[in-house]
Amino acid sequence: MNLIKVSVIVVIGLLSFASADVSHVVQNDTTLLPVTDVCLGCICEAASECDRSLKCSGDVCGLFRITWAYWSDSGKPTQQGETADSPNAYSNCVNEPFCAARAIQGYMRRFGQDCNGDGRIDCYDYARVHKFGGYGCRGELEYKYQTRFENCIKTFTSN
């Protein structure tokens, strides 16, 4: 099994486990959770190769490499028992995979759009919105990000 598949499976497993905890509260509705677990895993792979050891560096944090503005625009999700106004709420959330995934879901509910002009909003669009933000997702992806993302998607969509 290749390294991409293993790291993404680990992230998907973690995120699926977290999703199970709220299944009684959140219905399986793409307007509430627009990004699938596989898509989250592939965004993770593209952003950092799902490196769980990554913390804050410069203006990005965590394995999804999320900025404070992104987290804020996503609705400022927090760890259990913490308020969004807590001084460490941002870094505590985005450095933890479950909370970071909630930030991505919130961001995509707000900014998800058809970035590639194919008439639908799917994981390819979410990967672009994640990288470029909600106001400029039509740019060219950097080679490394695009290659990691596409290889991941191919790994999980091929038989």
Largest sheet: 2 strands, antiparallel
Give the strand line-up of the largest sheet.
1-2
Q: Give me the CATH fold name.
A: Lysozyme
Instruction: Give the CA-based shape.
Output: globular
- Please state the average pLDDT score: 86
Number of E-state strands: 2
Order of helices and strands: HHEEHHHHH
Q: What's the CATH architecture name?
A: Orthogonal Bundle
Radius of gyration: 15 Å
Q: Determine the fraction of residues in helical runs and give it as a percent range.
A: 40-55%
Show unreliable segments.
16-28
Q: What is the overall number of helices?
A: 7
Characterize the structure shown.
There is one protein chain. By secondary structure, the protein is an all-alpha fold. It has one domain (3-157): Lysozyme. 52% of the residues lie in helices and 3% in strands. It has seven helices and two strands. The protein has helices at 3-21, 37-48, 68-73, 89-94, 97-111, 123-132, 143-157; strands spanning 56-57, 60-61. It has a two-stranded antiparallel sheet with strand order 1-2. Strand 1 and strand 2 (60-61) form a beta hairpin. The longest helix is centred in the first third of the chain and has 19 residues, at 3-21. The radius of gyration is 15 Å and the shape is globular. Disulfide bonds join 39-123, 44-50, 56-61, 93-99. InterPro entries: EF_Hand_1_Ca_BS, Invert_lysozyme.
